[in-house]
Amino acid sequence: MLFFLIGYMGSGKSTAGKKLAKLLDYGFADLDDHIEKRSGRRIADIFAIEGEEEFRRLERLYLEKLCKLDNQVIATGGGTACFGKNIELMKSSGRVIYIKLSAAALAKRLSQSTNNRPLLKNTSNKSLENFIEEHLAQREKFYTQADLIVNGINLDIKELAQQINSTQ
Ligand code: S3P
Predict the structure, then answer these.
(1) Segment 72-103, tens digit of pLDDT
(2) How much is the pTM?
(3) Using CA positions, which residue lies closest to atom 3 of ligand 1?
(4) Best mutation site among 119, 135, 142 for ligand 1 pocket (most ligand atoms within 8 Å of CB)
(5) For the domain with range 2-163, which CATH number is right: 3.40.50.300, 3.90.1640.10, 1.20.1050.10, 3.40.50.1110?
């Protein structure tokens, strides 16, 4: 079985994914790390030099490769679910979990790390919450196609694992 964690930047997909994998005794893969390692390029450089379109092409390519594995928890990037029918691919390859947080909570978490996120680097902290609110509204129609939606505030991984087992 594969479990995909989706959700906006800063929702805690990688942290939750690592814990969930440990609990389930599964492998863990972070799609962004995988792209960087396999392509030999940093995500920030891919965005800056080749552009978002090339990043989305690589994201799809490596997502397809990860979908061929088994018994893995896969933390995706914030945009993965929202491009090129990736949500359909993930849903047909395993179970998709959306870690949901409000724009206000995300803005609070992301205010320290906009510089290393290509899509946020030109947004000031003052306008961050508004930006996220609009961006999240565009993305929610993809995120909410997940098989399971969980509240990202104080996310309890043991509870999440129980929920996964009880809804299998
Ligand atoms: C992106 C989120 C990033 C990374 C890339 C694009 C997005 O991942 O994949 O910068 O479109 O939201 P995180 O969600 O891990 O920050």
Answers:
(1) 999 999 999 999 999 999 999 999 999 999 99
(2) 0.97
(3) 77
(4) 119
(5) 3.40.50.300
